[in-house]
Amino acid sequence: MIEIPFTNATLPARKHIALVAHDHCKQHLLTWAKRHREALAEHALLATGTTGKLLQQQLGLEVTAMLSGPLGGDQQLGAWIAERKIDVLVFFWDPFEPQPHDPDIKALLRVAAVWNIPVACNESSADFLISSPLINLAHNHRIPDYGHYLQDRQS
């Protein structure tokens, strides 16, 4: 078993928030985002392809759109999380519909857990997350110390 050391990092006060929704959940995410537009406007927004375009049109806010999830957008977001370019993940996933890119979805959720970022997977948890006082504050959290891990592996 590999033992990964940890270190502390700080999520900035202005967060980079990734917004993702499966097809049957896009309208729920759009309704949620409209309700929380004012709070979301304080942060940088990212999304997978179609969701990003819809959010930009509906909210009138700048949204950095990746590829569509099934075409690699979930993996792009996962890479950005690992690079510490995404601070929060809001992912309205559909628990009733099988997804052809299910391994990518699991990988995205796994990397979010590895890098210890806040994750909301439904409307209720997203409400709690966006209304937390921590959403607008810098926040210290524990992350893998990958640099230290690499040094140990080379010794």
From TrEMBL:
Name of the top EC class for this enzyme: lyase
GO cellular component terms, semicolon-separated: cytosol
Entry keyword Ligase: no
Catalytic activity from the UniProt record: dihydroxyacetone phosphate = methylglyoxal + phosphate
GO annotation terms (biological process): methylglyoxal biosynthetic process
Keyword Lyase in annotation: yes
Domain of life, source organism: Bacteria
EC number, UniProt record: 4.2.3.3
Pfam families from the UniProt entry: MGS
Keywords of the record: Lyase
GO molecular function term, any single one: methylglyoxal synthase activity
Every MGS-like domain range: 9-155
InterPro entries, alphabetized: Methylgl_synth, Methylglyoxal_synth_AS, MGS-like_dom, MGS-like_dom_sf
Binding site for substrate: H22, K26, T48, G49, T50, T51, S68, G69, H101
Active site, per annotation: D74
NCBIfam families: MGSA (TIGR00160), PRK05234.1 (NF003559)
UniProt family annotation: Belongs to the methylglyoxal synthase family.
General function of this protein: Catalyzes the formation of methylglyoxal from dihydroxyacetone phosphate.
Protein name, entry field: Methylglyoxal synthase
Organism of origin: Atopomonas hussainii
Gene: mgsA
